[in-house]
Specification:
mainly alpha, Tetracycline Repressor, domain 2, two-stranded antiparallel sheet, 6 helices, 2 strands, 7% strand
Amino acid sequence: EAAVRNPARMALGYLHGAEPLGAPPPPPALARPFTGRLDPRHVAVVRAMIARGLNSPRASSVGRLFDAAAALLGLGDTVSYEGEAAVALETAAGTVRAEPPSWRVVRAGGLWVSD
C-alpha cells in the first residue's frame, strides 16, 4: 500500500479528504508548512486521486493517523518499514509524563462518550 511507504500521502488525505464531501480546503497557513516541502506535482496528483476516489481507500487505523501526524510534523514523509513514522513520532514526544486529561471517556448506550 502506497500510504504505508509514503506517510505524506496519508497526511494529504487527512488534509484534503473531506473536500469531496463539500468541506473547504484547509487554510493555507495550516497546510503550507507541510505541502510547501513536497513536490507540487505529487500534491496535485494525490489531491486529484482523493477528489476522484481513485486509489485512496479510507482508513480508520490509528497507525495511519500517527503516520500522518509524523509526516505533518516533518518526522517522516517516506519510510522504509511500516510503523517507522509512528516510532519517530513517539520518540519526538519524549518521555515526560503529562497530567491526565480533566475529562474521562465512558461507555453509554453502546457509544464511547467524553464526559
